[in-house]
């Protein structure tokens, strides 16, 4: 193994994925030759229109489904090998969209314990892991609550704690904020960013909300099962026209700058945040 | 309406009863329920009442909360009472047109009503004082001693715990769907039984579809969290049988024996022996 691949968290090599049949009984190509890689400690945003294949991709990374063609390598292990299955699912944790449909237990701390219990971790260590995970997502105070009494954002943080307790190296977030209100979305995003920054967790964040990934290390844009753009947030969002063509938005401030520029105002094309906008306008 | 159902709910107060090992409570409840059907005079029911009252007070659960659990069953209890009242042959005490009330009927009806009420109260005290997780753990343990069921103990316990987890979620959903259908002009309050049952269809279909979708997503999420059945699985909380459990078991044994002894009492109370 080369030094470069040692640092590689996930390697997707020319992956195709076809769903055998849809409602009309025809095969649907969800991924059509996707190649990408995620380095350890990176924060990667994946965006794409509905049906672009981003959810399919996320499920491939966690070995919930397997490529029709090509390979998915997680931390050096190929998802195709059945004996790697549980190691991969433990290494690359996954947080789903609907907070209600991923909490298993009736008490918060029991739910966080679910993952490590499945892994056969000794009881005392599970206790430690659960307390640690709840502390990271700042939900210790809710350890004995019932999940259905929590807000959407809190439930999602519990789901994150449940994954953290399995001690993964990487967490895949499959639109975790899609069903939340703005404050819940903020809570969850702060948690995700903190994980990446302070705990050096590799984060793959799939989302519809462009604001959530303006400070990602890298953004990958999917369209019709293919990677169509890849790069730093600034270089991606600079291409407003192209993103709109494939049905995607840009951050609000980028959009505003774009419109102002179209109206003839001199304006830089890589504005992402309100702060940058204020600076540009006050010059 | 749906909020009245207290069976299967957990009401934490941190009392002595709550702290007991779930196995102790399951054992006692089972013995208690069986015993209820042996009772044959009011002395027994009086004793049962006192036992339940003591346990309820110890559990620190508001009495009103427990009583509310019976409200949902009023219809069944009434039906049992009415049927037994008029259908039991014996010495007549009063006639109401073609219907005759007999002493025996009064007796059986009273016993059946008390039996049902105490049955519901007894079992709901168990669920109210035991967290669902403890309850399923306890049941999983108990199932290990039942032949044929033993092999599926873990799966059954997991199913039970998921069912309990989703009861409030699905109830909320039902209420949401009802509101949505009401906003579209659906009527759930009037009409005869058949019309009302028909009106439930627009609630049940969306509810079922959503339940299946939830089940599918939950299964994926469980697999993603490395769930692979009960083998090699550990638990964070181990069941621990402590001194208070031993002591309570002895006490419970005495109570059950006491209840059984009441069936020998020959002094009539309200009804002839």
Helix/strand layout:
The complex is a heterodimer of chains A (283) and B (273).
Chain A: H1 3-6, E1 8-19, E2 28-39, E3 43-48, H2 54-61, E4 69-74, E5 77-78, H3 85-91, E6 92-95, H4 108-119, H5 123-136, H6 152-164, E7 170-174, H7 182-198, E8 202-206, E9 218-223, E10 226-231, H8 233-237, H9 240-245, H10 252-262, H11 274-281
Parallel strand pairs in A: 3-8, 3-9, 6-7, 7-8
Antiparallel strand pairs in A: 1-2, 1-4, 4-5, 9-10
Chain B: H1 16-19, H2 22-36, H3 42-59, H4 63-71, H5 74-87, E1 92-96, E2 99-102, H6 103-129, H7 132-143, H8 153-183, H9 193-224, H10 243-262
Helix pairs in contact in B: 2-6, 2-10, 3-6, 3-10, 4-6, 5-6, 7-8, 8-9
Short description:
By secondary structure, chain A is of the alpha/beta class. Helices cover 37% and strands 23% of the residues of chain A. Chain A has a 6-stranded mixed β-sheet with strand order 6-7-8-3-9-10, sandwiched between helices.
Provide the low-confidence segments of chain B as ranges.
Answer: none
Largest interface: A-B, 41 and 32 residues
Major beta-sheet overview of chain A: 6 strands, mixed
* Broad structural category of chain B: mainly alpha
Helix content of chain B: 55-70%
Quote the beta fraction of chain A: 15-25%
Biggest sheet strand line-up of chain B: 1-2
CATH topology label of the domain at 41-69 and 77-232 in chain A: Rossmann fold
For the terminal residues of chain A, how far apart are their CA atoms?
51 Å
Q: Quick one: overall form of chain A? A: globular
Question: How are the strands ordered across the major sheet of chain A?
Answer: 6-7-8-3-9-10
The CATH class of the domain at 41-69 and 77-232 in chain A, by name, is Alpha Beta
Q: Could you give the order of the helices and strands of chain A?
A: HEEEHEEHEHHHEHEEEHHHH
Please give the number of β-strands of chain B: 2
Kindly name the structural category of chain A: alpha/beta
Radius of gyration of chain B: 23 Å
What is the overall pLDDT average of chain B? 87
């Amino acid at each position: 193994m080369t030094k470069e691949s040692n640092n590689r968290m996930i390697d997707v090599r020319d992956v195709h994925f076809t769903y055998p049949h849809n409602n009309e009984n025809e095969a649907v190509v969800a991924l059509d030759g996707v190649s990408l890689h995620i380095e350890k400690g990176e924060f990667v945003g994946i965006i794409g229109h509905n049906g672009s294949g981003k959810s399919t991709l996320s499920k491939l990374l966690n070995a919930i489904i397997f490529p029709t063609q090509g390979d998915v390598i997680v931390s050096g292990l190929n998802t195709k090998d059945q004996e790697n299955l549980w190691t991969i699912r433990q290494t690359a944790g996954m947080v789903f969209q609907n907070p209600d449909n991923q909490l298993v237990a009736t008490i918060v701390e029991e739910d966080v314990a679910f993952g490590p219990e499945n892994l056969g971790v000794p009881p005392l260590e599970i206790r430690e892991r659960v307390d640690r995970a709840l502390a990271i997502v700042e939900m210790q105070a809710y350890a004995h609550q019932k999940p259905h009494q929590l807000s959407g954002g809190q439930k999602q943080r519990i789901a994150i704690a449940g994954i953290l307790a399995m001690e993964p190296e990487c967490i895949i977030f499959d639109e975790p904020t899609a069903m939340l209100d703005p404050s819940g979305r903020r809570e969850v995003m702060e948690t995700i960013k903190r994980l990446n920054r302070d705990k050096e967790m590799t984060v793959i964040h799939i989302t519809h909300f462009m604001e959530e990934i303006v400070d990602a290390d890298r953004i990958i844009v999917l369209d019709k099962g293919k990677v169509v753009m890849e790069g730093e947030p600034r270089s991606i969002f600079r291409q407003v026209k192209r993103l709109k063509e494939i049905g995607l938005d840009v951050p609000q401030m980028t959009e505003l700058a774009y419109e102002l520029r179209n109206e003839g105002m001199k304006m830089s094309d890589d504005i992402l945040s309100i702060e940058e906008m204020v600076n540009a306008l006050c010059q | 309406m749906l909020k009245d159902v207290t069976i299967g709910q957990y009401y934490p107060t941190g009392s002595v009863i709550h702290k007991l090992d779930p196995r102790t409570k399951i054992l006692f409840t089972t013995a208690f329920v069986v015993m209820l059907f042996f009772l044959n005079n009011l002395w027994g029911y009086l004793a049962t009442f006192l036992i339940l009252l003591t346990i309820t007070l110890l559990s620190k659960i508001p009495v009103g909360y427990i009583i509310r659990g019976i409200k949902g069953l009023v219809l069944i209890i009434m039906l049992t009472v009415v049927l037994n009242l008029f259908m039991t042959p014996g010495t007549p005490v009063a006639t109401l047109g073609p219907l005759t009330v007999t002493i025996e009927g009064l007796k059986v009806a009273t016993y059946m009503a008390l039996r049902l009420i105490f049955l519901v109260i007894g079992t709901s005290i168990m669920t109210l004082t035991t967290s669902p997780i403890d309850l399923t753990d306890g049941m999983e343990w108990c199932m290990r001693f039942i032949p044929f069921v033993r092999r599926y103990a873990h799966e059954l316990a997991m199913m039970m715990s998921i069912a309990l987890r989703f009861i409030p979620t699905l109830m909320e959903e039902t209420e949401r769907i009802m509101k949505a259908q009401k906003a579209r002009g659906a009527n759930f309050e009037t009409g005869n039984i058949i019309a009302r049952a028909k009106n439930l269809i627009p609630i049940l279909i969306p509810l079922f579809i959503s339940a299946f979708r939830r089940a599918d997503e939950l299964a994926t999420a469980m697999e993603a969290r490395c769930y692979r059945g009960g083998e090699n699985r550990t638990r964070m909380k181990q069941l621990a049988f402590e001194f208070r459990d031993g002591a309570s078991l002895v006490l419970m044994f005495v109570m059950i024996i006491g209840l059984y002894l009441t069936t020998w009492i020959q002094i009539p109370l309200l009804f002839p022996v």
